[in-house]
Specification:
The chain is an alpha/beta fold. The chain contains eleven helices and ten strands.
Length: 329
């Protein structure tokens, strides 16, 4: 059985060296208060890469230099960015080359005049190609990123080994939207006078508390940039004006590759009704795993439990025969 120890096992590192190397983007005193596994994960070498996809520069992070290993692509949710995965990705480099994408309009990628489901799918496939990932690639998508991952699987699933949907609630056709509270995932940006003022305004959406303040601090530090005489969020707040979420596929049954679902036991988005619907549409070979004491942003609440769950799931995929479709039989 795979377990995640309290120490990540990346080798002995001098905590002071870790602090110095990360101080440029993250306040050293805050990092000093983070647990050792988190600091060691951030120390693992990675590359910053950019690839042009349909005329837009798409930024991504890449861990590992062994091109013979299969690819693992990590996909963020609405309003997020690649660095949400920076302390998660290193736990998977024993078996994979790992990439984390910034969608167009998010993080350190460029902005587009128009956004579409097809465009986001092209970005995922473009990063996979640029990173040298082959047909043994697995894509893990959270929330909105899970919907893009689903769309990618429907369109390109025969070129993938599998996909993992993380708290991405695929609703039944008769879902009652009117009785459900809704909050805008992206609001108009403000310009703050300094970096600290911007970071102090960082909040999760949908709203939730997170006890792991060291994770919140790290993500917030990578969520802002200097612009317009002050500091702003990195995301494009015009994105939702052109993007239509309804254009993305919800055809769970049409995924030809291996599929898994991970969700937060206390997620306000992933209700029992939605879980029942998805379980009914997907066949019995698809694992559904809930993470206790986790809301929608699962690995912010329970990072080690999430890592352990995903590692175990991927280990099972490496050593078992797939039952969905016939691509990898």
């Amino acid at each position: 059985m795979l377990t995640v120890p309290t120490r990540a096992g990346f080798g002995k590192r001098d905590p002071l060296i870790i602090l110095i190397m990360t101080a440029k983007s993250f306040d050293a005193p805050k990092l000093a208060n983070a647990p050792q596994w988190f600091r060691e994960a951030l120390y693992v070498p990675r590359e910053d890469r950019t690839v042009d996809v349909d005329g837009c520069p798409i930024h991504y992070l890449l861990w590992g230099d062994d091109a013979s290993k299969p690819g693992l692509l990590l996909v963020h949710g609405m309003g997020a960015h690649a660095h949400w995965w920076s302390f998660i990705a290193p736990f998977f480099t024993d078996h994979y080359r790992v990439a984390a994408i910034d969608f167009g309009g998010f993080g350190d990628s460029g902005y587009r005049d128009n956004y579409s489901a097809t465009g986001f799918v092209n970005e995922l496939m473009g990063v996979c190609a640029d990173a040298g990932f082959g047909e043994d690639t697995i894509i893990v998508g959270h929330s909105f990123g899970g919907f893009v991952t689903l769309q990618t699987a429907v369109e390109h699933g025969t070129q993938l080994k599998g996909v993992v949907l993380v708290d991405s609630p695929v609703r039944p056709p008769d879902y009652d939207w009117e009785s459900r509270p809704r909050t805008a995932p992206i609001r108009p940006k403000k310009t703050y006078p300094d970096r600290k003022s911007a970071i102090d305004r960082f909040r999760l959406r949908p709203p939730q508390e997170c006890a792991n303040t060291y994770i919140m601090d790290y993500i917030a530090a990578h969520s802002v940039r200097e612009a317009n005489g002050g500091w702003e969020w990195k995301f494009d707040d015009n994105l939702l004006k052109t993007f239509k979420r309804g254009s993305m596929s919800t055809d769970l049954a049409g995924i030809p590759c291996r599929t898994a679902v991970i969700f937060g036991e206390e997620s306000k988005l992933f209700s029992q009704e939605i879980a029942d619907y998805m379980f009914k549409v997907l066949d019995s070979s698809v694992p559904f795993v809930s993470i206790p004491e986790a809301e929608h942003h699962i690995w912010l609440d329970q990072p080690l439990a999430f890592i352990s769950t995903l590692r175990t799931l991927l280990a099972e995929w490496r050593h078992s025969r797939p039952q969905r479709g016939d691509r990898h039989l």
